[in-house]
Design goal:
heterotrimer, A alpha+beta (359), B alpha+beta (364), C alpha+beta (286), A: 359 residues, alpha+beta, Ribosomal Protein S5, domain 2, 2 domains, 12 strands, elongated, B: 364 residues, OB fold (Dihydrolipoamide Acetyltransferase, E2P), 3 domains, six-stranded antiparallel beta sheet, four-stranded mixed beta sheet, 11 helices, 17 strands, nucleus (chain B), RRP4 S1 domain-containing protein (chain B), KH_dom_type_1_sf (chain B)
């Protein structure tokens, strides 16, 4: 019981009128701000630096008001490819949300159960990302240096510092921005003709395949295909009684309290071209309203994860539209950051330029 | 301003010393602790050399918040033997009132309850003939839970009687887990637990509104924590009279809880009270009338116009929280006015650039 | 840069590998309230921290989050007269420079040891008996590790506790010091980074270098003059005096660290006060 039924009622009613509790419309996103390695200017106001020097790429998704803060780091190294995919690179994702406490955690009563829930949540997010985003994240064929021998492995590590609703969306955003900001040096393999017997022909000890690494950082490039990395949009479906039947409608980018009232959630991953890359339905938020359930059967508010079938296509369409808005939002953020921050006014960094920054 | 910096102390900083003869030139307040310094011959060469002062061995007899007066009496004899130091234990500003020295922490997430504070909390447990109320609306908050005993609530109907075991069994019908209640601090126990009550008619379950939380330090102690933002604040000057008549625009009630919870709902319109009071005679108790009003408020839908106003007030509180300014009716009103004058959509009010602009009025 | 050998550390002009003099600590920045508190505008908890701090010493960056005091879930864990202090040190997989390594905080022995040390150090300073039957949780996340992560963790924990408003006896400040004897010349340096630690101890982390080298992280309560933690895993060839000298240098380093931390806390306090009164153009935004 995380939220009282009357608050839930208010939230659902508000969304029904297309005027959510913080004034957004149903399909509006919150003003996320992104800082990556390239535009540190917007991150000057906030403490946690987004540029992780020791990583190949990094990004930080931050929602003003400190309700969401996610760090992402991308580290690259060369490995042998897996035997059944010898011509593809590897992307590994791991999520750590130990600092973000929270919502799903029922009570302090059982520390073991808490930890288990945390781990479950982390693994849920990881596996969802693995399924919805990773297959389309980069151009895997382009990550190959030498087929069968060396490929790039991009390790994406996401640290959730705090999150207010839609963890998956924010993690996907962080991952996309992290991948886009990653700089991989150009590595090419020197293939010798006589490497069949594995002997090195040059002076002692050098390996079969030499690798030429381009040391100039200005020539380093992001992994190709990172621009096409999809984003995830989580739609929460709220149910409200209206004139003796239930009306379902969906909202985008729900806050925690809105997520709790949802009867079910759908995560849709959409790439910049508008193609849907994956759909996954999750259960509901968790509150149960007995009065509704009595009236309408189990289909009312609650943990039931069912929704009418024709809803699904409508949901996916809505997701496509919302994703387009999100891409625009992210791109405008990025451009605002790239152009040196004196001109543009988005993000707190510019605004604090004349004011004291606590260090 | 300089005096503030001058008064700012860190943990471990010595605030005052007193010699044994004067029997304490200071009284210990919140955020400090006392240490008895007994000079001993020191054989540690290293420690003294490194620091260059003579803080060698302390015989640490500490008095802090947990001790009560009786313990002090016993130790008085031993205390008198050495000079005392008053040392800060929090980072904050020093406040001296005559001999009482205390430290007010700058950290705004600390909430220390005092008798008479208004609390907006969430019920997280029922049992043992009392309710457990979470003071920060969060499970891992920085304060413990408050307790609302069964004897501290008004029974439905306003009857005054001794609580029976049936009442104990019916506790959930009054307040369940997850409900929001407004209550007052009746008592602060020795270990810091707060005992709450809702015995006045203004307190009780909160319904049909919006809750938002801010750090407790931003809500100052005032005379009245039940504030109203009047409807005329929301009407722009020279607005066209296209108000649809059946959409009531009313006032917005804001309850400022000292634990950081801020509850926003529409004010119960006075027309209701009038219609309710049509059959009012002295036999119908006031409690029942209020209860009926509350129920009506909970069950009536909120109109879209009111929702917009409530959302505007909520975002105004958010803006104030972001700039860490005190939350009080005047500041909320000024932000709401600024947003109306700048014609900002409610949903955009929390975008960074608007936050700065709208809260300009709060900064001189 | 040529391969780093012990004798290369101190070059002819007496500068260290990162250009510092032997008695200079790394550039240190502290940020209190990096993740502001729980009450962040929503009706429900999104993160339960009462205080936080981000400390960077050189390239080492550590984030510390304090939760509490809150109720202990299990009766068996609660102490009747004081608070239980729980400390967890975690690293992110991307924190070590070089290879990415995932360290599970429950099984990695180094992390467990550091958690325990941190707990001991903090217990000496927090006034635990003010919160009987409750629990204070300190979580440290190492974002980047360039040597000295234990010291940075202690500093960050102190700042986070102050940010949370938990009463302390004194600030706990930590710094490390080390000594090499190279070619007959003894040099004592303060605040070692990762390369120097590796060179001093022969392998990354602690334990068993060749003799004549000492690596000593130290935590003190500077205003009271107490040493809270000192950990030395090297063999001391110079005898106890050598230890004393290195300890002195380390304590001086702690003093410098304390000054930086104190300045950061004062600035933040001044800023918060100003913002509350609405008196200035200072705006503190998360």
């Amino acid at each position: 019981m995380a939220i009282s039924p009357t608050e839930a009622h208010y939230i659902i009613e508000s969304s029904l009128h297309d005027f959510r509790i913080d004034g957004r419309s149903r399909l509006e996103h919150r003003p996320y701000s992104i800082s990556t390695k390239s535009n540190n200017s917007t991150s000057s106001s906030t403490a946690v630096s987004s540029s992780l020097i020791l990583s190949n790429g990094s990004s930080r998704i931050h929602l003003p008001g400190s309700t969401t803060d996610i760090l992402c780091s991308v580290k690259a190294d060369l490995v042998r490819p897996s035997p059944n995919k010898p011509n593809e690179g590897v992307v590994e994702v791991s999520v750590d949300s130990s600092l973000a406490g929270g919502l799903d955690i029922v009570k302090n009563s059982n520390a073991g159960a808490q930890k288990r829930q945390l781990r479950e949540r982390e693994s849920t997010i990881t596996s969802l990302l693995q399924r919805l985003v990773v297959p389309h994240a980069v151009n895997y064929k382009a990550l190959v240096i030498s087929p069968g021998k060396y490929v790039w492995r991009l390790c994406v590590d996401i640290v959730v510092l705090r999150c207010d609703g839609c963890v998956l969306d924010a993690c996907a955003m962080a991952m996309r921005e992290g991948l886009r900001s990653t700089l991989l040096p150009r590595v090419s393999a020197v293939v010798r003709s006589d490497d069949k017997d594995g002997f090195a022909s040059q002076g002692g000890g050098s390996s079969n395949n030499d690798l030429i690494v381009e040391g100039d950082i200005r020539k380093a490039l992001p992994p190709s295909g990172a621009e096409e990395c999809p984003l995830v949009v989580t739609l929460s479906i709220l149910s409200a009684p209206q004139e003796e039947r239930i009306r379902h409608f969906c909202i985008v980018d729900a806050r925690t309290e809105e997520e709790v009232c949802a009867s079910s959630r759908v995560c849709v991953s959409v790439d910049p071209n508008g193609m849907v890359c994956g759909v996954h339905t999750l259960g509901g938020g968790g509150i149960v309203d007995e009065a509704m359930n009595e009236e309408f059967g189990v289909e009312g508010f609650g943990i039931s994860s069912s929704m009418p079938m024709n809803m699904l296509s409508e949901v996916v369409n809505t997701a496509g539209g919302a994703a387009k808005n999100l891409y625009q939002l992210l791109d405008s953020e990025k451009f605002a950051g790239d152009s040196k921050a004196e001109d543009d006014g988005s993000g707190y960094g510019y605004l604090l330029q004349n004011q004291l920054i606590i260090q | 301003m300089e005096s503030i910096i001058h008064n700012f102390v860190l943990p471990g900083q010595v605030l005052a010393t007193s010699n044994s003869e004067t029997d304490g030139g200071f009284l210990r307040g919140h955020g400090t602790y006392i240490e008895i310094v007994q000079d001993k011959e020191s054989d540690n060469r290293h420690a003294t050399k490194a620091w260059g002062n003579d803080q060698s061995n302390y015989n640490v007899v500490m008095q802090t918040d947990g001790d009560d007066a009786s313990n002090q009496e016993d130790d008085n004899d031993t205390l008198k033997t050495g000079p005392q130091r008053l040392i800060a234990s929090l980072a904050g500003t020093v406040q001296r009132v005559n001999k009482l020295i205390s430290v007010i922490p700058t950290s705004s997430s600390v909430y220390t309850g005092q008798v008479g504070d208004l609390i907006i909390g969430r019920i997280i447990g029922v049992g043992g003939s009392r309710w457990k109320v979470s003071l920060t609306c969060s499970h891992n908050g920085s304060t413990r839970e408050g307790q609302l005993p069964l004897s501290g609530v008004n029974l439905p109907g306003g009857v005054q009687r001794i609580r029976t075991s049936e009442d104990v069994l019916a506790m959930r019908s009054l307040y369940k887990e997850g409900d929001l209640v407004s209550c007052e601090v009746q008592n602060v126990q020795r270990d810091g637990t707060l005992i709450l009550h809702t015995r006045s008619l203004r307190y009780g379950k909160l319904e049909n509104g919006v809750l938002t939380t801010v750090p407790p330090g931003l809500v100052g102690r005032r005379k009245n924590h039940f504030c109203t933002i009047e409807g005329k604040v929301f009407e722009k000057e020279g607005a066209n009279d296209m108000q649809i008549d059946d959409e009531e625009g009313g006032d917005v009630d804001v309850y400022l809880g000292l634990n950081g919870g801020i509850w926003i709902q529409r004010k119960i319109p006075s027309e209701w009270e009038n219609t309710q009071g049509m059959d009012r005679d002295s036999r119908v108790p006031l409690a029942e009338t209020l209860q009926k009003l509350r129920q009506r408020h909970a069950s009536t839908r909120v109109s879209t116009l009111m929702r917009e106003r409530i959302a505007r007030v909520r975002n105004a509180v958010e803006c104030l929280r972001l700039v860490q300014y005190q939350i009080c009716p005047e500041s909320i009103e000024s932000v709401v006015r600024a947003s109306l004058m700048a014609d900002v959509r409610v949903g955009h009010m929390i975008c960074p650039e608007w936050v700065v602009q709208l809260t300009e009025g709060t900064r001189q | 840069m040529a391969s780093l050998r012990r004798t290369d550390i101190l070059s002819l002009i007496h500068l260290r590998s990162d250009g510092r003099r032997p008695n200079e600590i790394r550039h240190m920045t502290c940020h209190l309230g990096a993740l502001p508190s729980t009450n962040c505008g929503s009706a429900l908890p999104t993160s339960g921290c009462s205080g936080s701090a981000l400390v960077s010493m050189g390239l080492t960056q550590v984030l510390c989050v304090v939760k509490g005091p809150c109720d202990v879930g299990r009766r068996s864990e609660e102490l009747p007269d004081r608070a239980t202090l729980e400390v967890i040190v975690r690293t992110t997989p991307f924190s070590p420079p070089g290879d990415r390594r995932v360290a599970n905080p429950t099984t990695d022995r180094r992390l467990i040891e550091q958690s325990h040390l941190l707990q001991t150090a903090l217990s000496a300073s927090i006034l635990l008996h003010l919160y009987p039957k409750s629990k204070i949780t300190v979580t440290v996340m190492v974002l980047a590790d360039d040597g000295g992560r234990l010291e940075a963790a202690i500093n960050a924990a102190t700042l986070a506790l102050m940010d949370a408003g938990i009463p302390l006896k004194d600030m706990v400040c930590a710094c490390s010091a080390g000594r090499w004897s190279a070619g007959g010349v003894d040099e004592i340096v303060v605040d070692l980074n990762r390369r120097e630690i590796q060179a001093a101890t022969g392998m990354s982390g602690g334990g068993g270098g060749t003799s004549d080298t000492i690596y000593l992280p130290v935590a003190t309560m500077p205003q009271r003059g107490n040493v809270v933690l000192a950990q030395c895993e090297s063999r001391l060839s110079g005898g106890a005096e050598a230890f004393g000298e290195v300890l002195d240098v380390a304590m001086k380093g702690c003093q410098m660290v304390m000054e930086i931390m104190a300045a950061a806390v004062r600035e933040r306090g001044a800023g918060v006060w100003k913002a509350k009164e609405g008196k200035a153009d200072v705006m503190l935004v998360e």
